[in-house]
Design goal:
Largest sheet: none
Keywords: Coiled coil
CATH architecture of the largest domain: Orthogonal Bundle
CATH topology of the largest domain: Arc Repressor Mutant, subunit A
GO molecular function: DNA binding; transposase activity
Radius of gyration: 19 Å
Order of helices and strands: HHHH
Distance between the termini: 31 Å
Structural class: mainly alpha
InterPro entries: Homeodomain-like_sf, Transposase_8, WH-like_DNA-bd_sf
Protein name: Transposase
């Protein structure tokens, strides 16, 4: 498994929503991210940028591999490695 997130899911979702809500108050999306990061005590606006981009990919608004697809690929790679090990054991027996 991957490492646990430093920030709870609820905080990540809230930050993404807040940036969308306050975006019109700032000249750029990055400035909105910076303001929200400061309000919520998040170390870097880049962290929020990552969450927003991931949300856009998952929603189909941005090209990329969705979170669900990434999890499935990871599971399949793990399963493939197990099957390869089992095959090696059977070949050597």
């Amino acid at each position: 498994m991957g490492r646990p997130s430093k920030y709870p899911r609820e905080l990540r979702e809230r930050a993404v929503r807040m940036v969308a809500e306050v975006r019109s108050d700032y000249p750029s999306e990055y400035q909105a991210m910076t303001a929200v990061a400061q309000m919520l005590g998040i170390g870097s606006p880049e962290t929020i940028r990552t969450w927003i981009r991931r949300e856009q990919v998952d929603a189909g608004d941005r090209p990329g591999v969705t979170t669900d697809a990434q999890m499935e690929i990871k599971r399949l790679k793990r399963e493939n490695a197990e099957l390869r090990r089992a095959n090696e054991i059977l070949k050597s027996a």
